[in-house]
Design a protein that fits this description.
The chain is an alpha/beta fold. Helix content is about 40%, strand content about 10%. Strands 1-2-3 form a three-stranded parallel β-sheet, with helices on one face. It has a three-stranded antiparallel β-sheet with strand order 4-5-6, with no helix packed on it. The longest helix is centred in the middle third of the chain and has 20 residues. The chain is globular, with a radius of gyration of 19 Å. The two termini are about 35 Å apart.
């Protein structure tokens, strides 16, 4: 509870649970997402039981994204994060096997690495021949986000403005040189030589904000 109060305003947890019931009563699917950091990995696992008990439609988490390299200490170590993903993954299967309503989404791209290690994912042959083929995983530069002022960013979780819709068309921004720079996956540290290049790449925003390098490695990736 202490971590939740520190990250959100007091009372927000109870208010969220009350809102889930109101949404359920109205026939609206509630989708709950938490922010995972070094401080609250155990809390995330506990929340899985809470959202299931309250019949939320789905639950997932997104990793805390530091705003500067100095704040990267709030990331868990690769070993800590791998263990957390294992526990979340196994608990998801166990809870779903009980026939619960809540779906537990595996949003983080490093789940692909975990499934690959467990033999539950095999890289298709068609994707191995082309390093530029993005089949899944981090879509930096392949999709964008329009901010309220019209700025288009390659990723909403990092400083990555490529233009503005009031000055250029979306089709121009989608294929502009700056967007293509973000889309390049051939130089990403660790990922460029990884079997999972086309399918994972971790979170490049987390890597960038931890290192200041656009091609910096995801600091939570445990793969050698």
């Amino acid at each position: 509870m202490e971590v939740r109060i520190r990250m959100r305003k007091p009372g927000s947890f109870r208010a969220t649970l009350a809102a889930i019931k109101l949404l359920n009563d109205a026939g609206i699917e509630s989708q709950i997402m938490s922010t995972a950091s070094k401080m609250n990995l155990d809390d995330i696992l506990s929340l899985m039981d809470v959202v299931a008990e309250h019949n939320a439609y789905s639950f997932t988490f997104a990793r805390y994204c530091a705003t500067s390299p100095e704040k990267a200490e709030d990331y868990p170590s690769p070993e800590e994060y791998r263990r957390f993903l294992e526990r979340y993954y196994d608990k998801s299967k166990a809870l779903n096997a009980q026939g619960l309503k809540t779906r537990f989404i595996q949003k983080d791209h490093l789940f692909t690495l975990l499934r690959w290690e467990r033999g539950e994912f095999t890289v298709p042959a068609f994707s191995k021949a082309d390093p530029d083929m993005v089949c899944d995983g981090c879509h930096l530069g392949r999709t964008g986000c329009i901010l309220a002022n019209g700025d288009v960013v390659a990723c909403r979780r990092m400083e990555s403005t490529v233009g503005n819709v009031w000055k250029e068309s979306l089709s121009q921004l989608e294929t502009c040189e700056e967007m293509q720079r973000y889309a390049d996956v051939k130089e990403i540290e660790k990922c460029k030589d990884c079997e999972l290049l086309n399918w994972c790449r971790g979170c490049r925003a987390v890597g960038f904000n931890a290192t200041g390098d656009l091609h910096g490695a995801d600091p939570c990736c445990w793969k050698e």
